[in-house]
Fold each of these.
Amino acid sequence: MDTKVKNHSHALLPLVVILFSIITLTVSLFLIVDSQSGILDDSLDDDDTARVEFYNISIKAGDNLTKIFKAVGLEEKDVFLLQELGKDGRALQNLKPMQGISISVDTEAKKCLNLSLWLSNEKKLEFIWKDDHYETVVTKQPLKTSLNYASVKVKNSLLEDAITSGISKNLVYQVTEALGWEIDFIKDLRAGDEFELLFKQSYLPGKGFVNDELEELLYTNKKGTLKATKFENSMGLSAFYLPDGQRLSRDFLSSPLKYNRISSPYSISRKHPLLGITRPHHGVDLTAKYGSPIWSTGQGRVVFVGTKSGYGKTVVIQHNYKYKTIYAHMSRFAKDIHKGSKVKQGQVIGYVGTTGITTGPHLHYEFRINNKPVNPMTVKIPRSPSLAKKEIPSFESLLEKNEGIRIQIKHAREED
Ligand SMILES: [Zn+2]
């Protein structure tokens, strides 16, 4: 299939932003997920008739232990006892959104008998009331995982159709991220295109579903099928690869900001709008709202940050010995951008402005190869390095294994 470099990956951003907002919104909607009450046996309390209630709570932004205790009918004195327990107590002072807590409450004594805080998906910190104080225990519970398969044919939008097919939003997000350089999800998808996904589902016994992780995808359109497989190399780094071992991702993003339009393209000779003289335009001018964030298109090191006459406030990033990108006319620089600082791909380095010689707010963006300017919108950016030769055998056996599992699950479903 066609795997040419596309020039409009910014069109993908709104989709990703929407996905994120939906996920965040869903999470923040529930505080108390589940509560049950019952009579416990006397191992927890000497009084056989003690009423004990259990609460499972998902932390949301702004929650603290005092607030939670109030919501489950507990008094503040236990908050102090718990939070004073050194390092373990500090974990309760710094609750993080999406963390899970479960609490057993003696409703007569208004006493917290047991509090479990999930430090991670697999690690639980438990506070147990013993006579006159709390004791803490950390337990690790390994995740249970299973491979699963799902397919979806595009009818309306990938997200909508995927959800109808029972595929999680998180998994759709991983698909759009993996194929970001290959497909423009707004422009290229057609009704009838099909996605087949092999993914790992993680469960925590007693806590339920934890996560979906994309392992392999097949995207089929009229032109053919693109297959991408996640593989962890011997260094422990995992990425998606095509069947021939080529890596799916690129070292550069196709755009340094969410822009409205190209106000001035790259050209070898153009008449300067303000200076009136003909000279080359070594970059592209991308208009955007004053103050819009600008991000580094690749990982690298800042080699210049400051004012360059006509360029105004400018950042120059060296990506390796060969590639350099230049960002000009900024209104201001991001806080942690200094000469010599390391930047990650997608890290915000500054904000759109009008410094230097400009007719309005825009970003002047240059891409240089061996210090020679090239057109940033059409430059053929190579794929990130392919798999090393020594990794190929284990990659090929993974491809075979995935194929086997996919066929097995498909057959099992057809027989149903
Ligand atoms: Zn320019």
Amino acid sequence: MKKEPLGIGFIGSGFITRFHIQSFTAVRDAEIRGIWSPNRKHASDTATYARSLDLGDTKAYDSISDMVSDPDIEAIWLCGPNHKRVENMEEIVAAAAQRMMPLKGIACEKPLARNVGEARQVVELARKAGVPTGYLESDLFAPSQDAGRRLIWARGAATTGRPYLARAAEEHSGPHMPWFWQGDLQGGGVLNDMMCHSVLLVQHLLTRPGEPHSTVRPVRVTSHIASLKWSRPEYARLLSKTMGKKVDYRKHPSEDFASATIEYETNEGTTAIGEVTTSWSFVGAGLRHTTELLGPEYSMTHNSLDTGLRVFFSREVKGKQGEDFVEKQNSETGLMPVLPNEASAYGYENENRHFVRAFQSATLPELTFEDGLEVVQILMTCYQSAEQGKTLNYPPRGLDSYIPLVARGKWKPGK
Ligand SMILES: NC(=O)c1ccc[n+]([C@@H]2O[C@H](COP(=O)([O-])OP(=O)(O)OC[C@H]3O[C@@H](n4cnc5c(N)ncnc54)[C@H](O)[C@@H]3O)[C@@H](O)[C@H]2O)c1
């Protein structure tokens, strides 16, 4: 029997909303019916974009409350900036309480919030409202990671023992909007922005398919952060010029490099290690995800820039800067990799298909706000470890009220 489509409303009309909308062309049983953004024109342009892809009769709304009050909207995809998470959630749940039919779900982009205190507020608001939640972590749904994980566990792990080392890195040359660079608004630097992907991915890869992530428990965390590029005077000046005066890395830098080693105890009593690294100081063709999973007699590797398609443009080819080959593209000439369907390759299609099905059928999705909270707890432990220059047992004390120095504008690189 054909299902009624799930009516989705988006909060935010920025970069990630566009990615999600594009991915919905490959998702059945969903319609994008609403967009809200504080900028009315951006909301209407994004609604026009969704309609142009035949994703529904998408309307731009004047407020979150208006959108959530509309019975045509059945689920919310929360894609606003990090510093508005709690405020956005408060408005969603207040309007949801007035509905005749309850919302079927709220899915929220990474990171769930800027710090543990805020993440707990987000979890609590949803719990009190009784709305099912989904934590949007696209990496776990990327077809390559998923296929690699299944094969490794079905063949290598089944016959020679579980994997013991997972490595993941996500790197590019820096975010597109000023708020990402501002520690107080974003919650930190690249560690908060991008290591959220890798810390969950390594735990997921090390977890036997079908078992919960809690079977691979983090027990010790060692982390390091640095400002390698963007606090150099010439780059700090360039950053202020392109991102505005509020982004001044001579006075208030955020880290543009972070690494962490996370030690896990598995439910079988064995030790496993996750090695994660991330940077905004990587200049290559564009965004690069690299992943490895290793066990006693096997290994898996993936590099998102090893695409099947490459183009070459000589120095005679002059053109505008763009991201038409790959996200966060750094060049339009030379030999360049092309990723034709990024919405699929990065996992957005599978991710949205999964959450639509879960909300439609009222079943528990693979990732909820609780998973998002756990990720924030690990990230904050990484900041604490980096600040103290030592390995910490997980969870350390005082996590709930902890705010990283970077987010308080007090971090001094190298100290
Ligand atoms: N999964 C991923 O790989 C990925 C990639 C990029 C961004 N993200 C996450 O998605 C979220 C949005 O990032 P983005 O790249 O789209 O940022 P962006 O700056 O491009 O867009 C943010 C959007 O939020 C809107 N906004 C402004 N004020 C708001 C408010 N008060 N309430 C709600 N929305 C408001 C803006 O108008 C804009 O449309 C962030 O939390 C970010 O971490 C995830």
Amino acid sequence: MKQITKIAVTLAIMAGLTMNLMAQNQRGQGQRQPGNRNRGGRAVVENIMTRTSIRSYTSQAIPADTIEILLKAGMAAPTAVNAQPWHFIAINSKEKLAELAGTNPNAGMLRQAPLAIAVCGNMNKAMQGKAREYWVQDCSAATENILLAAHAMGLGAVWTGVYPTDERVAAVSKVLKLPENIIPLCVIVIGHPAERPQPKDKWKPENVSYNEYGK
Ligand SMILES: Cc1cc2nc3c(=O)[nH]c(=O)nc-3n(C[C@H](O)[C@H](O)[C@H](O)COP(=O)(O)O)c2cc1C
């Protein structure tokens, strides 16, 4: 009888341990779910804080799989009602890059770069009426994602503005042969960095309020 009790107690302890381990395992899997903070969060914040515009590049080309990662990062951005009202054009032709340089007096670095991505709004996918303008925010979110992904992969990049400057929109549309419904927001110039500028410290507590303006 004593022996039977011992076996029963041992089995009960083993069952308890197994259940505990299973619960811990489930919690562990839960920690790997999207949205959880325990996934190299500090590295992500570090990447955001150390990004800075890079305007000088080596001649090294950017491989197709890297370009695809950048495009996927862009498309991972949030958009109003998840409309994804965008179109991305990756430009790695030297001639096209040089032509694009002529569309913006502040985008001469395009002549030196191996890659640019034009982030465009697709008005056929944008919302109707006043909400149509959300395309600018949607495409801006995509642009920042691409800038951060480039930095995370050791590349350098800079956002060059197109929309809402009419002449630039017209000039970029002509170079990239854009149909009427596609509006270029910006051209992101990308390459392997040939300069290492210090990231700017932009933290200004006076630009922040808590609960009410000015408090
Ligand atoms: C809407 C927008 C348009 C920009 N246009 C240009 C541009 O045409 N040429 C350029 O060299 N940089 C351009 N920039 C990059 C800014 O000059 C740069 O982000 C800013 O000086 C802050 O520096 P940082 O990116 O190193 O933090 C643009 C940035 C934004 C957000």
Amino acid sequence: MQEIKFFSGENIPLELHKTRIVQKLHLVPIERRLEALYEGGFNTFRLTTKDVFLDMLTDSGTNAMSDEQLSAMMRADDAYAGSQSFMRLQKAVEDVLGKKYYLPVHQGRAAENILAKAYVKSGSLIPMNYHFTTSMAHITEHGGKIVELLYDEAYVINSEHPFKGNMNIEKLEEIIRLNTPKNIPFIRMEASTNLIGGQPFSVKNLRDVRALADKYGIRLVLDASLLGENAYLVLKREEEFKNSSLGEIIKTMTDLADIVYFSARKLSSSRGGGICTNDIGIYREMEALIPLYEGFLTYGGISVREIESMAVGLYETLDETVICQSPNYIEYLVNALDKKGVPVIKPAGVLGAHIDAMQICSHIPQSQYPAGSLAAALYLISGIRGMERGSVSNQRDEYGNETYADMELVRLAIPRRVFTLSQIKYVEDRVHWLYLNRELVGGLKFVYEPPVLRFFMGGLEPINDWPQKLMAKFKEDFGDSL
Ligand SMILES: Cc1ncc(COP(=O)(O)O)c(C=O)c1O
């Protein structure tokens, strides 16, 4: 894609789309935001959108849909079995991801459940570049364990490494030898490694993983939920691919995996998900699980309308003007925050800007959840809803002890083609103010802790009256501004 330069020399991510359907937003007063925090247990998942101004919780199911997707939904062929809509989706999966056999599931974690049911048992070990919350939960639920094998650079916040999501190849071989290949049903590679700041891996690294998988006869599974964006950063950062199309890069990556699975809430901007492969044996190992847990094999729990929008969305993943929009906005925000001294994960990745709560709230011990506290504080002073990606999002170990996260991040997701640049500037402004007033942010403690995936519905409360003090300072500085 050709770059569009501004005469002023400013680096502005220009939108190559226009807005035709809009949704009204609400920026409620700070007093109401404080109440909403108490009602929602200081957990941004538990806020309702009536109280949220900029919803930066996630890009999952929140990317803007295109006119082509919406119109495709109108021609949905409602049939329990053999729907033409499904045939169109199957073709899109083959055209875009290069896999002949496709098993539909209702969303990404359903694919993880099916994979775990088919391959994970007590004693299984799954090496991965890094875990995602639901992928790890399904593996441990089925008696398996995971091991994360990133290079040290992945954990460096202020880095210039282009591929922090790369698998540590030397460690991978060591782990395979130590545990013997028979206990390793598959190696999992996650495109644009979500929990370490949306950081990509290179195609070279994936080829190296493939070589080890071949050497030891282990399946390679690719979590392709953020594959389009990983491919976009390969295009930008990996010399070999600088003249390739997104489609060529995507196919190069999927060709290297035995199994590709994805959440269509991200890849394709719709709903649903899938598992695909070119190996009929692998397909057969999972086939019977789909009608049991998801729905018949030609819908898998996805509505037929959404099957149509998925098919169109998959083809749109090949369009650089669609895929570049979120990474370019993220880069803009990351650079702006970095210039103001706010510690933020660098280089800019995909999915969102990731603010380093470990540094910003260095006065809050991990046992009081600095990232959860900062996410709550940001909502309080701005109405911006981010997501805690730190120790609250971790699960306790088998003995019930806390496992503190490697990073304490507040993720500000930037879904594709949703926000305007002035809204991004508002985010920059409020995060900067909060950074300057960071000493006023205090810790949290759990008052309700679900045993699995506690971050979704868990309830916390502040350890003292820091929210009231932060609100008072906001009012002092902003007067009657919302
Ligand atoms: C990398 C990755 N894998 C899997 C999932 C799970 O997908 P879903 O939310 O559709 O269940 C997600 C969701 O955010 C994800 O980011």
